[in-house]
Amino acid sequence: MNAETKIPGLETEKIDRIASDILRPVRINKVFIIWTAFLFIALAVCLYVYTIQLRKGLIITGIRDFTSWGMYIANFVFFVATSLVGMLISCVLGLIGFKWITPLSRIAEIIAVAFAAIAGLVIISDMGRPDRLPYVFLHARVQSPILWDVTVVTTYFVLSLLLWFFPLIPDIAVAKTRLKGRPAFLIRIYEILSFKWVHHAEQYKILRQAVKILILLIIPTALAIHTVTSWLFAVNPRAGWDSTIFGPYFVSGAFVSGTSALIIAMYFFRTNYRLKDYITDFHFERLARLLFLVSAVYLYFNLNEYLVPAYKMKKFDAVHIHELFTGDYALLFWVTQTMGLILPLILLLFKRIRRPLPMLIIALFMFAAAWLKRYIIVVPPQGHPYLPIQYVPEEWMVYRPTLMESAITLASFLLVLIIITLLSKFFPVIPIVETAHEEKENEIK
Amino acid sequence: MGGKKNKNKAENTDIQQTLEASRRDFLKKAGISGAAVLSGAAAVLAGYRHEKSKNKGEFVKVLTTDNKLVKIAAEEVEGYEPGLKELQKRGREGIPGKKWVMIIDLSKCRNARKCIEACQSAHHLRPYEYHINTLVMQESVNTPAYFMPKPCQHCDNPPCVSVCPVDATFKRQDGVVLIDNERCIGCRFCIAACPYSARMFHWEEPVNAQADKDKEYDIELNVPQKKGTISKCLFSSDRLRENQLPYCVSACPNGVYYFGDENEDAVTNGTTKETVKLSELLKQNGGYRLMPELGTQPRVYYLPPKNRIFDFDQDKPREEDLII
Ligand code: SF4
Ligand code: SF4
Q1: Which of A298, A309, A409, B248 could pair with A317 as two cysteines, CB 3.0-4.6 Å apart?
Q2: pTM of the predicted structure, to 2 decimals
Q3: Residues in A touching B157 (Cβ below 8 Å)
């Protein structure tokens, strides 16, 4: 080992061992090629469907003049929501001082980057004139929540990308000499991205400061993106959207979908990348507690959001509440509330459940329910406007998503998977240097 | 009808004869059309140019027979077609000094749907694409049902305008809320915001897209309509500019609509062409606006459906008639 890789305060053997564990999946193998090929082919099919939409217009979707925001917008809200997990894990828990987040923070950041980046594309798929996207800046009007949303989502994406990348630099420097047998282009990328990092104590000091600044910037930005997203609805005078608690209601819901996404990803990396020694049962137990906490808060907001109007039953609120509780959307509503919130809350009380596999199953349910919940928030309030829907074709009365718009929505998930795959496959998904430090601290204790 | 007290028989379809309009007519007739006349009337022209320059309209240069190059207001030249720039400019400003209002008398509406047809043919829309739609309303089981024509309410505090990210929908000084389909990005935030469901979207290629392809876009008519953009009631701003009543108002066979200028306190019935005092009409008939609790301040007023002159139940559509 030359002097360059000597990290202050850490034994080289420790780094060697950890690095070789964590860098093991960083290679191009058959499974990876098949998986990415599948992703890209599926994506190509979905993008072809999008070209049909470009040609024919939004007529290929189920949205019409009355329910004019459908699956695309619900999906957008879901993506913004899920991306908030980056802020929750690295920033909030990190600032509080929890050490166990170390192996999870980078996974959380990858999820944040992927979902925030694609959220921007999802919104474009909903535009009637995507070619006029530059107008949003050229003819920007500060009064419109859309401008606020575009600004903060972009900012959050950039900050999250930096928060993923900064702590990665020392790891890249560690890894670049340990990538024997990997493709030349990858070694070259590592060479460039290590920015001549020499593990000087001063460098670490600056890095720590930079990360701290990022963390402090991300917390308000993340709160802003989801609050503003909730305002896209709350500013409209419509029963079901006209709510003063939409901001915190959305943010608390975001933590639920984000935490479930993180649990799913953790489980996947732990088994497929053979990282059981780093992502342990203990981490699942911790996240189970976190999931319980955020779900309980979300349940509390749900009670406020639905029971208060249901008690008063004002004319149009009553129509909306009836639709959800007993009407067209009842099945969807009760499934999301029970399977996605109440049942998991009960199950999480049991110690036997707070283990990797049961947690994966719960997280999958909550993740799916979180998506459906966004659909329930976005779609039903448009089905019953103040004035009746009359003299229109029958299919205009009730919104039914079409196969084509489902395919375009699927494209957004494929893109997220592609980003997550590439970032986690080409770069260490667990921080090497930080993990080594942590191990050392535990040994001293 | 109480409002008849203050009626004024108007001779033609003009909303009112203003000085401005007659002056313009005079000038047109005086023959600005021919450059020959111009050459002999340099003095008139000078004064006229001075006047017109106050309006800052579009100017064109005209060569007179004695080889003088003069500049005159473009819209005064016969056969003049304003270009896109001018159409956009005047369309966004509105007609100075006016505050347009519409009054809809619900006691007279029997759902003839002539207003809708006239509107759809003027704006090149399909039968189920509405700028104005007549709805069957019933507040509660014990109150009678009635027909309610519903155009855009041209709110003075319009939620649709607040939320538009690119200023594609805007409020003019004469009270009209318009939509610029050269600007609209198709986000449909305005549809979400409008409590009166007054807006429509071009989900597919508009019905006349092929025929209208080469037409200059008139923001006051919103033609050519464009795929992927919004459309909605425009209070027929193109007609207002020509001192005519809106398409729907003049098409109604039942005298439902009054239209006019709030500043002059005068509105004209589209069927009978009587002009009455706006304030009196509202006062004597208990005029009201839709959903005032939302604070949108509509410019459309309704007169309640009392003493109806026909039997509603006879015209009442069945449930299945409400689907087309
Ligand atoms: S009725 Fe709707 S579209 Fe018309 S001005 Fe009011 S909010 Fe805007
Ligand atoms: S759809 Fe067009 S008019 Fe409506 S808010 Fe969006 S850009 Fe403005």
Answers
A1: A309
A2: 0.88
A3: none
How many structural domains does chain B have? 2
Q: Is B230 in the pocket of ligand 2 (CB under 6 A)?
A: yes
> pLDDT tens across B58-74, in order?
677 777 777 788 877 76
Separation between Cα atoms, residue A137 and residue A269, nearest integer Å: 40
In a domain, A275, yes or no: yes
ipTM rounded to 2 decimals = 0.92
Using CA of residue A353, residue A359, residue A365, residue A369, what is the dihedral sign? Answer: positive
Question: B34 in a domain, yes or no?
Answer: yes
Q: Which ligand 2 atom sits nearest the alpha carbon of residue A128?
A: 1
Residue A257 burial class via C-beta count within 10 angstroms: exposed 0-12, middle 13-18, buried 19 and up = buried
- Look at residues B51, B76, B101 and tell me which one is the last residue of a structural domain: B76
- Structure tokens, A280: 């342990």
Q: Both tokens of residue B99? A: 């505050």
Residue pLDDT, tens place only, B208-240: 999 999 999 999 999 999 999 999 999 999 999
How far, in Å, are A257, A357, B2, B30, B105 from residue B288 at the CA level? 47, 63, 16, 46, 11
**Would residue B250 count as lying in a domain?**
yes
Q: Which two tokens stand for residue B138?
A: 């019933």
Ligand nearest to the CA of B154: 1
- The string of pLDDT tens digits covering residues A268-284 is 999 999 999 999 999 99
Show the domain range for B297: 87-310
Structure tokens at B310: 């026909």
Between chains, do B185 and A57 touch, taking CB under 8 Å as contact? no
A240: phi then psi, degrees, rounded to nearest 5 = 100, -25
Tokens 């709160």 identify what position? A223
